[in-house]
Amino acid sequence: MSAEAAKYQASPLTSSWSPQPEKPKHDAVVSSDDLSEEPPRKHGGWKSMVYILGNETFERLATYGLLANFMVYLLNKFHLDQVYATNVLNIWSGTTNFAPLVGAFISDAYVGRFRTIAFASFASLLGLVTLTLTAWIPHLHPPTCTKEQQENDQCIGPTSAQMGFLLLGLGFLTVGTGGIRPCSIPFGVDQFDHTTEEGRRGINSYFNWYYTSFTVVLIIALTLVVYIQDSISWVIGLGIPTLCMVGAIILFFLGTRVYVYVKPEGSIFSGIAQVFIAAYKKRRVKIPADGEEEGAYYDPPLMKGSVAIKLPHTKQFGCLNKGALILEGDKDGNGCPSNKWRLCTIQQVEEVKRIIQIIPICASGIITFTSIVQQSTFTVSQALKMDRHLGPRFEIPPGSLVVISLLTVGIWVPFYDRILVPALRKITKHEGGITLLQRMGIGMVFSVLSMVVSGLVEGERRASANLQAGSDGIAPMSVLWLAPQLILMGFGEAFNAIGQIEFYNKEFPDHMRSLGNSLFSCTIAGASYVSSLVVVVVHSVTGKHGRPDWLTKNINHGRVDYYYYLLAGMGVVNLIYFLFCARSYSYKGALSITKEEPHLDLELNQLKP
């Protein structure tokens, strides 16, 4: 069986999935002789997408459905104050979004994407069951509080045991998310053959439709689930996502016969470490001058008759190139490295360079998402103190307002993918209409604008509440005034979030896709932590000299509008930083080598945006 064919197994449940020793990039190439012996299994393509997208959609429904209204649950069911509830939500969200980094490592190095998703799905189910029990069993949540007690701040908070059980459920959800999020997109990409035009087009559309599919489902589900949680029963409202997770698991396992399974290739982190250590050991060695480089570096050729993606040798971060310099004693009698911690391939070095280039871009997404995550915290607090009536009888649940943002994404992305991109492609001659970095930058602008509008609307809401509100503190101002800021947040997601997903999956080395995809979750995690840090600092620093702080428990006495303006200012500084990073960024080159002469195929048709 060939090296490439061995990566694809008929079933992950019956095959051996023991970790494989890490091999140089050229060892994992399909030769024509190998293909004639036993061809690799045909890629699943769009036939497998219903199962993969279905699992991811239901998992997002379960966790996002909880996140959208969880602020209300903490405030009204567990009687936490606004700052405490916000910090619980942000810290959990941050931890949950950092977990995919661990999941990506386990998947790529040891168990593979299918098994990681399968195990994580059961962990998510266990977490949802635990949280449903906190609403169902009286001893697992504080006593019910009347409206009068809430207005007079006389509600009894949770005991340490009740809070511990709640956090246990959130912990299970974190484990589940850590396995599903970094693997679902790469597992979907695995189903397409990137060596064919049809496969490459399928991958390009997959990124947009991946984000749109679960967004549309969430728009339908969140309106119903959140309404049930607020108006009928938290037990039923939390039970529905739990049942959806059961459906996700069933749907995922139904597709086992049509999936393509890529075996794990060993720890990618050891390969990264080898480059730095090898370069350090040769730090005193001089780099060959131009014209003297031929044969100086360890750059084993690809097998004849193969089509493989190989990164071209660059002079950027030239000190790392020393790790591939061949010195006396570095190679054994067979021409292979005698010590992998002293001699690396050019491919390994170039892969590390890509990571170094991507990390600054990744960091810029943290502040961008700090603005976007506000729709689950202070936007909900605003909605609770506004007129939420839609007609004489129906009242909009505050957690359902996030649907406005999701609806924006659901409508815009298909329009962007099917109409705007083809039109822009004719003008710019670029495959994606605009570059990925340009797309991300536009999203950052929308993120800043959303915070400016949020501050303006909150200023009007606060003034209206303090002048005309009744004893309940609700401003005579329609909650739909929050729609503009949520629409702008939606555009921020549509441009920046989807741009980041595609950027990481295209720019990371192929065998590091899970790690690359987990960086998207890490930016959201960083945003949650930064948001929590800013809340703590603002809560501590403001409110001196007898005045309430900006984020005091009674939002009508605070100045949340100033908090929004602070985030907008941070966003402007972040945009300047991003433009600086984007200006020096070079897109990944792909060196395609066949029996004919090699040619340089730049994935995005250009080296710089």
**How many DSSP H or I helices?**
17
What's the number of extended β-strand segments?
7
Structural class: mainly alpha
Unreliably modeled segments: 1-39, 303-308, 592-609
The percent range for helix content is 55-70%
The SSE order reads HHHHHHHHHEHHHEEEHHEHHHEE
Please outline the major beta sheet: 3 strands, antiparallel
Output the strand order for the largest sheet: 1-6-7
Q: Compute the separation of the termini in Å.
A: 42 Å
Question: Strand percentage, roughly?
Answer: under 5%
Descriptive account of the structure:
This protein has 609 residues and is mainly alpha-helical. Helices cover 61% and strands 4% of the residues. The chain has helices at residues 32-37, 49-77, 82-111, 113-136, 147-151, 160-190, 197-231, 234-254, 268-281, 318-321, 346-372, 378-384, 402-428, 436-468, 483-507, 513-541, 560-583; strands spanning 308-310, 386-387, 389-390, 394-395, 475-478, 589-593, 599-602. A three-stranded antiparallel β-sheet has the order 1-6-7, with no helix packed on it. Strands 2-5 form a two-stranded parallel ribbon. The protein has a two-stranded antiparallel ribbon with strand order 3-4. The model is unreliable at 1-39, 303-308 and 592-609 (pLDDT under 50).
List the helices and strands and how they pair.
Elements: H1 32-37, H2 49-77, H3 82-111, H4 113-136, H5 147-151, H6 160-190, H7 197-231, H8 234-254, H9 268-281, E1 308-310, H10 318-321, H11 346-372, H12 378-384, E2 386-387, E3 389-390, E4 394-395, H13 402-428, H14 436-468, E5 475-478, H15 483-507, H16 513-541, H17 560-583, E6 589-593, E7 599-602
Parallel strand pairs: 2-5
Antiparallel strand pairs: 1-6, 3-4, 6-7
